[in-house]
Design a protein that fits this description.
Shape: globular
Order of helices and strands: HHHHHHHHHHHHHEE
Helix content: 55-70%
Number of domains: 1
Largest sheet: 2 strands, antiparallel
Structural class: mainly alpha
Distance between the termini: 40 Å
Radius of gyration: 20 Å
Strand content: under 5%
Number of strands: 2
Strand order of the largest sheet: 1-2
Number of helices: 13
Length: 308
């Protein structure tokens, strides 16, 4: 009975976002199995890499449930009292919310590639040298601790309830799962122009000079077109996946903590506190010289500036 009660309490702590992602998890695994069968005679899948991605994805979901239930929901509920409007959900207002959330995701994603604090969480997703559906599941359990959820606070202040905010985000993230594949080539022109597609997202995961820090959109690619971060996939230059200073490990703990460790180790180096703290918000490739002066060098980032 105690186990049943614990499960009941845990289930009550889930919001619509987490229920949706948990519900889709078996479907994601089935999709992975189908893709693996299709590619089993190629090097697109690596069993160790894929297992690491699945374990990280499961850990991310479980830790997010706990952290959101204990802290984040209270923050959003507190902020909701300062909302500008009270927006009832209709099909039209939900479409508006989805577009707003997609724009806010773009903002987070851009910052995650250009600020080391957020990159420390996001690098987990980019550290795989493979591009398949298990790469989509490769998420950091420390995402909630990095406070990435703050990027979605404007939707609450505008007047949307948090349940709908995170349901829209869950739909967005679920869509993005299907972008992590080499099975689908380019889609018809109008779709490629408006939406994020597997072709656009392969660019995003590339560490080639022309591809790094490009195509940050979630569902829509129009934000990248508007803000100058769009690059199309070049048929003559296949994306090389991974990060420029590759972490060669399949250990989920190592993959989760390696960039946090490196960041705090860099902060511990002697020097003025202003430069120490700059490691938190500067670009992931920024480093100090031994003399304490500033310089940039490739770090555990994709390249120059920095991520689904």
């Amino acid at each position: 009975m105690e186990l049943v009660e614990l499960f009941h309490q845990w289930a009550l702590s889930l919001d619509s976002k987490q229920w949706l992602l948990f519900a889709l998890f078996p479907f994601f695994l089935l999709t992975i199995a189908v893709e693996y069968w299709h590619y089993h005679e190629t090097d697109i899948y690596d069993i160790k890499d894929s297992c690491a991605g699945i374990v990280l994805g499961a850990g991310y979901l479980v830790f997010e449930v706990l952290f959101f239930a204990l802290f984040v929901w209270s923050v959003f509920d507190w902020a909701y009292q300062f909302r500008l409007l009270t927006i009832e959900i209709t099909p039209l207002s939900f479409l508006l919310l989805y577009i707003i959330m997609d724009l806010l995701f773009y903002a987070y994603h851009f910052v995650a590639h250009h600020t080391r604090w957020f990159w420390a969480g996001h690098v987990v997703h980019h550290a795989s040298e493979h591009m398949n559906f298990t790469t989509a599941m490769r998420q950091s359990p420390l995402y909630p601790l990095s406070a990435m959820w703050l990027f979605f606070m404007p939707a609450t202040l505008l007047g949307f309830e948090r349940e709908w905010i995170f349901f829209a985000l869950a739909l967005n993230l679920s869509y993005q799962f299907f972008l992590h594949t080499q099975w689908i080539d380019r889609l018809p022109g109008a779709i490629e122009w408006l939406f994020n597609t597997p072709s656009h997202h392969r660019v995003h995961h590339g560490r080639n000079d022309r591809y790094v820090d490009r195509n940050f959109g979630g569902t829509l690619i129009i934000w990248d077109r508007l803000f100058g971060t769009f690059t199309p996939e070049n048929p003559q230059e296949k994306p090389e996946y991974g990060i420029t200073r590759q972490i060669y490990s399949f250990n989920p703990i190592t993959l989760t903590f390696h960039e946090w460790r490196d960041m705090f180790r860099d902060m511990a180096e002697p020097g003025p506190w202003g430069l120490k703290l700059k490691h938190l918000w500067a670009s992931p490739d920024w480093q100090r010289t031994q003399s304490g002066n500033e310089q940039g060098r490739p770090n555990n980032a994709c390249l120059g500036g920095g991520t689904t």
